[in-house]
Amino acid sequence: MSNPSKNTRKQCQNECNDGPAQGLQHDGRGEGYLAAVEQPLADTSDAGLGPKQTAMNTRAARRSLAMKISKLLPYFKNMYISPFDMITVLLDESNKEFRVYCSELYKKDNKKIFSILDCLAASDSGHSKLALWLKSPTGTKFYKDFIEEEMDSLHDNYKLKGLQRITPEYIENQEPDDFVHDAPFTMGLLRCAAHSKQQEEENIKKKPDQVCNTVMRQLLYQCSNRCLGFAAEFGLFLWASGSSCAIIDAAHALGLSISYPSVMHNLTALSVHCMGLAKDVASAPHAFCYDNINLSTSIHVEQQGLSSTSGKVTSGTLGILYKLPNATPEIMELQPILDRMRDPNYHGLDFAKDLRLTEEQLDVLSSQGLNPWDLH
C-alpha cells in the first residue's frame, strides 16, 4: 500500500524537474523551491485565469533605499537604539563578529565612506562637527601623521652627504622644487595660511608660491640638517653679497642659511673643487686670460667708494682658464704665432678674413639652432 504523502512529494518533485509551470521556475537552490518569473501582464479573459494566478505574474515596484530604511527604523525604536549606534558598533574593530563589514567598507574600490564624509561636510551642522573633530587630539594626530609621511618622503630627495656635494655643477643642474606635487597636503595648508580666500580671487599679481616654497625648505632643514642644499646656497649668496657674520648666523637661526663657519668650510671645499677643474683644463689645450679686479669688502656706506668717501676694497689679479675645444698641439704652438707677429708684411688680423664667419659656418650654426650674432 502506497503512502499518499510520499506520492505527493514525488509528484511535486517531478513537476519541478520537468520544467517551469505556469509562471513558476525552479532555480536549483533547493528541492521543490519555486520562484516567480518576471513576465509581462497578459490578457486573462480568454485563458480563464483567476486573479490569484495573475498576481503571481505581477512584480512589485522596486522600493528606494530610503523606503527600505524607513521600514527598518521602527525596529530600532522598539529596541531603544539609534541607527548611528549600530554604525558605531559595526565600525568598532574590537567586535570580531562584525569585522567583515569593516573589511568591506575599507576596500579600495568602496566609496561609501567618502559619501558619508561628503554628506557631513555638505551640512552646516556636520561641517561644524567635523571641524571640532579635526581640532581634537584624534583629529590633530590624523593630519599630523599625514604631514610627517609627506616630509619623510621629501627627506630622501633633499638629503646631501655633506657640504662637499655643493659644487658649481650641483647648483647649475639643480631642478626647480615642485612641492605642490611632492607634498600636496602640506603645501595646501601653507597656501591657505599665506593668503585669504578674497586675496586668492582678486590678487592676480602677488602669489604665495615663492614664500611657501621657502618655508618648505626651512622645514626640511629644521627636520634634518642633511637637507642643507638651499641653506648652503643661500649662505654662499649672503657671503658673496658682503653680509656680515652676524647676518649669516641670524639667517642660520631662522633656517635660511648654514652657519658662518659652515659657509667658510663650504668655500674651502669649493676652492679645492675648482682647483681640480682648473688642473683638468690646464692639462689640455687651453687659453689663459687675466685682469685686475677690485672687490668691495665692506657693507658700510662710508666705505663703499662714493664720491666723498674712499672705498674699502681688495685689489688683485684674477686669472681665468678657458678650455679650447677641438684644439690640437700643432695649433697651440707659440713660435709660429710669434714669427708671424714679427713679420713686417703682417698687418694684424682682418675682420672679414680672419674673424667673420663663412657662409658654410653660418649654415652649420643655423642648423644647430644657434644665433650667429650671439657669437660676435
Task: List the helices and strands in order.
Answer: HEEHHHHHHHHHHHHHHHEEHHH
Strand content: 5-15%
Number of helical elements: 19
* Uncertain segments: 1-49
- Spatial order of the strands in the main sheet? 1-2
Distance between the termini: 123 Å
Q: Roughly what is the average pLDDT, rounded to an integer?
A: 78
Radius of gyration: 42 Å
Query: What structural class should be given to the helix and strand makeup?
Result: mainly alpha
Total beta-strand segments: 4
What can be said about the biggest beta sheet?
Answer: 2 strands, antiparallel
Helix fraction by DSSP (H/I, runs of at least 4): 40-55%
Shape: elongated
Which secondary structure elements does this structure contain, and how are they paired or packed?
Blueprint (H helix, E strand, L loop, with lengths): L3 H15 L5 E2 L9 E2 L14 H6 L8 H14 L4 H9 L7 H7 L6 H11 L1 H12 L1 H22 L9 H5 L6 H4 L1 H11 L2 H6 L6 H15 L5 H12 L4 H9 L6 H23 L3 E11 L16 E11 L10 H9 L8 H5 L3 H9 L9
Antiparallel strand pairs: 1-2, 3-4
Helix pairs in contact: 6-7, 7-8, 11-13, 14-15, 14-16
Describe the protein.
There is one protein chain. This protein has 376 residues and is mainly alpha-helical. Helices cover 54% and strands 7% of the residues. The chain has 19 helices and 4 strands. Strands 1-2 form a two-stranded antiparallel ribbon. Strands 3-4 form a two-stranded antiparallel ribbon.
Brief description of this entry?
With 376 residues, this protein is mainly alpha-helical. The protein is 54% helix and 7% strand.
Which structural traits does this protein have?
376 residues, mainly alpha, two-stranded antiparallel sheet, 4 strands
